Amino acid sequence: MDQVQKEKYQARILDLLILDKKQKILVVNNENPIFAEDLRERGLSVEETDDKIDMQASYDVIILFGMLRGGLTQSTMEEVMKFLAARLDEHGQLLWCVDNKFGLKYWSGMQYEKGGFFRTLESTENEDVISYQKIMNLLLEMPEVDSTVYHPYPDYRYPMEIYSDEWMPSKGSLENYDFNFEYFRYRFFDESKVWDNIIEEGLFSEFANSFAVKIERR
Question: Which parts of the chain register pLDDT below 70?
Answer without folding.
Answer: 1-9, 69-75, 176-182
